[in-house]
Write a structure and sequence with these properties.
alpha/beta; 4-stranded antiparallel sheet; 4 helices; 25% helix
């Protein structure tokens, strides 16, 4: 972490971290949770989230930072997981795609469900999993893909929610962080 960078301290499933604050718009900063390489936090969060999940047949996540969380949740629950990709690869066959706009990327991007996973989730109960739900754009894109695939979304789960806590009451989350404005 850069020396002198402001942080926000939070305890998630018994694990405390100082999250660095990064400006995402003039006068607006977010506390960035990055679980990549943080095995202790990922394991603790996965175990805690698995205990809160309703019965489901798949754990679904978007490509990148939340993959280790979905994997760990799968290991601890025995529920298979699948990853919605950010680009189409030749081996994905006839992939479904939906546009999303994550606060951390700041620009539109796509999420794709490949042909194999489309067949696997059709008619199944799925839980959508992300590291942080901030704007809800990624969750909405994952939900849209699952609905197009004929799956039933039974839960939205995340390590943290961010921003307006009331907006995310439906998300099974282990904590909440505010959006920081001003100095």
């Amino acid at each position: 972490m850069a020396e002198g960078r402001a942080t926000h301290s939070i305890t998630i499933a018994g694990v405390t971290r100082a999250l660095p604050l990064f400006e995402v718009a003039p006068g607006v900063r977010i506390a960035v949770l990055n679980i990549l390489g943080d095995t202790e936090l990922t394991e603790a969060a996965a175990k805690a989230l698995v205990r809160r999940l309703p019965p489901c047949e798949f754990i679904v996540t978007a490509e990148a930072k939340s993959i280790p969380l979905a994997y760990a949740m799968s290991v601890h629950s025995g529920i298979p997981y699948l990853v919605l990709r950010k680009s189409v690869k030749g081996y994905m066959g006839k992939a479904l795609g939906v546009e999303t706009n994550s606060i951390t990327t700041g620009k539109p991007q796509m999420l794709y469900l490949d042909e194999r996973d489309l067949k696997a989730v059709a008619g199944k109960r799925v839980a959508l999993v992300d590291d942080v739900v901030s704007t809800g754009s990624t969750q909405a894109a994952m939900r849209a893909l699952m609905e197009q695939a004929g799956a039933t979304v039974v839960a939205d789960a995340a390590i943290l929610t961010e921003g307006d806590a009331q907006k995310w009451r439906h998300v099974l989350a282990l904590g909440h962080v505010p959006v920081f404005t001003g100095e």
